[in-house]
Design goal:
The structure is a homodimer of 215-residue chains. By secondary structure, chain A is an alpha+beta fold. In chain A, 25% of the residues lie in helices and 28% in strands. In chain A, strands 1, 2, 3, 4, 5, 6 and 7 form a 7-stranded mixed beta sheet that branches.
Amino acid sequence: MTTDDTPTRAVAVLVVIFTVESGKLRVLLIRRSAEPFKDAWSLPGGLLQEGDSLLDAATRRLDVETGVSDVFLEQLYTFSGLGDRDSVDVAYWALVDGGSARLARRDEWQPAWSNVGDLPDLAFRNRDVVEYALGRLKNKLAYSNVAYSLLPREFTLSQLQQAYEAILATTLDKRNFRKRILTLGILEETGATAGEGRHRPAKLYRFRERRPVMF
Amino acid sequence: MTTDDTPTRAVAVLVVIFTVESGKLRVLLIRRSAEPFKDAWSLPGGLLQEGDSLLDAATRRLDVETGVSDVFLEQLYTFSGLGDRDSVDVAYWALVDGGSARLARRDEWQPAWSNVGDLPDLAFRNRDVVEYALGRLKNKLAYSNVAYSLLPREFTLSQLQQAYEAILATTLDKRNFRKRILTLGILEETGATAGEGRHRPAKLYRFRERRPVMF
DNA sequence: CCAAAAGTGTTGGCTGTACACCCATGT
DNA sequence: ACATGGGTGTACAGCCAACACTTTTGG
């Protein structure tokens, strides 16, 4: 068996990184500094280096762009023919807490948050990728605790509800939301209250599990 | 920009092909004729050839092994490090009607149906791949019409129920099953009845849509 | 005392599940 | 006549959606 007769492909890893900030759902985009699509916005990504696993590559990319790790990160879909060449692109998606993310600062490929639903033109078919990820997110919100990855360790039920509303792009009834979430048994009270409010203090909660759990 | 500095990988496509036959859920396996894992069972697959899209490759593989096309075929997951080398393996899964499948006959790599839940030892980590596909199938059965791809064009409600039972590995209540399926509105009566039975003739139904629809 | 957000229950409709008997056909 | 699978309805429970007012705090 020779090594030359096995066809190979350039394999790239993309990451769709969502966060919720001031009641808006956002995605991390970078500005391309190279052709093709120079100066266009696109999703962060890069070629799969020799010896890397896909998850390694996605984890590293997420860390490089936002400085966070230990967050929800899951494979999304694998595209062929997304880029200009006949590369294979493995997309991942992640949820990060806007508060703990520290965007990379570099001269080129500057990352920035962009409101979903108000996206600029994106390179390649990256808009489809974001739409697909958004669908997955909405779905997963309904039957898992992924929201743990969008909020700080301790949070109020109102914050949690705002995150849900931003993602689903709807308003939710407060009483029904609280009842539903609390009866799931995935939260616990910390005992403390959020003091910084200029109004009535709110109970703080945290997720029992800081890793994905399906209901 | 040189072409040599971009690292590339061998990309393979695998297909998990399910069918239901005589009340059992089965998967298509082939016997390997080459090292490594010579003579072990494994999922059908092959390297992604130059110019092929992933879906092309999966479609062709499915056709080669079973002779069917126009069936449910969907991407499952992309693994790295599944094989012995550092290849990237894109898994697909499919549902075929056992009656219309005609297994390939060749001297090597003979394909054969194997009962899920009674699998032989599989090469690489193919057992995990089958398990993952099975989970997806069970799930999708609950909120889509994918079963259209497991049955002939016209079928009785009992056949449909048997398919569901085989997949979910449970028994279902006949009245509840019929009510649930019929109120979904995804079936229509053909007007004909199944005459070949040696008992009471059964109404024949068909799926309104022969392509995936989510509820 | 006013503004702002937190917190809290009840009702009605719908959906899913449990459950048993008669019917049509072939032998 | 009997064996085999086809076909049918009801009642209860759990879940989800609609809906409004009181409380606590800071200014």
